[in-house]
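A favour, since you know our structure tokens better than I do. Just paste the record in under my message, thanks.
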Amino acid sequence: MSFEPRTTDELVRIAMSGGGFVLDAAARTTDELVRIAMAGGGKVRLTFRGMAARRTDELVRIAMAGQGSVSFEG
């Protein structure tokens, strides 16, 4: 199942409901990824792909929002 076509609001709802997923996040803004990561509340596994071009401070911000539940892939 591909999650890329889903809106940020839909992904937030899924994460808030306890659903983890893998997302090609290259086209999403850092603010969108922070919202999604926060929605998981540190309780679901979220993997964001396509993150190699992000600055370290962006990755740190997203990781902090996910409370240890976010993984990054290049």
